[in-house]
Design goal:
About 75% of the residues lie in helices and about 0% in strands. The chain is built from 15 helices and 2 strands. Bound molecules: 3-methylbut-3-enyl trihydrogen diphosphate (2 copies) and magnesium ion (3 copies).
Length: about 325
Amino acid sequence: MIHSNLTRLRQQADAAIEAFLEQWPRAAGDGLYEPVHYLMELGGKRLRAVLALSAAEAEGKACEVAFPVALGVELFHNFTLMHDDIMDAAPLRRGQETVHIKWDENAAILSGDAMYTLAHLAMVQLPAEQLPKALKLFNQTALEVCLGQQSDMAFETRNDVTVAEYMEMIRLKTSVLVAASLALGAIAADASEERVKLWYALGEELGLAFQMQDDLLDAFGDEQVGKQLGGDILADKKTFLRLYTQEYGGDGARATLANWDGQRSNPAAKIEAIREAMSAAGAVDAAKELMHAHVAKAMASAEALGLEGSHLEWFQFLGGMVTQRTS
Ligand code: IPE
Ligand code: IPE
Ligand code: MG
Ligand code: MG
Ligand code: MG
């Protein structure tokens, strides 16, 4: 039952995205819309779109009322991925070459800009009563994502990053969009301001857990992840795994980390050495524990929203999916 709900919402999101993008068809060799269609057709989980549709349904409306915001958040998400892959020098996304590798960096910058613009063209399809509120949240979120991405990059060359700074960085780069996806779905369904805030709070906690699992998969996942494994380790990203290892792994672990910092010449050896230090320090278990604590907080918001029956079960399923996913 729950799996068929996922299939249904996913299909709704896919169909809405496909229909919307048909307005800007790819022309072979156009260099602008082709990369947009390329990345959008690779799909991914469509989590943000599914969340927007789910919140609208939980507010008692047909999921179609949330199509403009579902499109907005999903296009915005894909725009951030296209630029993030340049910033992270990432060769793989969803099991395929990233846009800046398949085309070039200029293509990824410009097609990303086009997707950001398309996200706004999707948003303005909302009814006039909801548009100002929704656009304000959408644009505040976009600014916060930029701030988070800026911290993520700045932390690469810092060695005094704290866990609190890491949590704030992932809240900004990832959680606020997950939170906004739910809140915008609720706004599209005409929910009260108080309920919109509760949806946002649910998403904020879910988003923290989501990024912690993303970090776990980057270091310890398999080819299902569809990204270069160990990319965060190579780039000296200050993930929770890394911070925990630095703090609790002892002098040996600290020496390993210091030795490899800034090195890109022997990627396989660097990734292996640091993965081992992380495992030995107990960082994986600690990360999972913290991740589950954030899912539990998200579920407390689901209860505060008064979700019941199949709606409550659905969000419990989503909470489990965030932490158990393998891609
Ligand atoms: C990847 O997001 C970027 C993060 C914020 C962690 P997803 O894991 O949702 O990527 P897709 O859209 O499913 O490919
Ligand atoms: C990306 O975080 C967050 C945004 C795109 C805003 P990551 O850099 O960890 O995402 P992936 O792992 O490349 O998908
Ligand atoms: Mg990144
Ligand atoms: Mg990245
Ligand atoms: Mg990642």
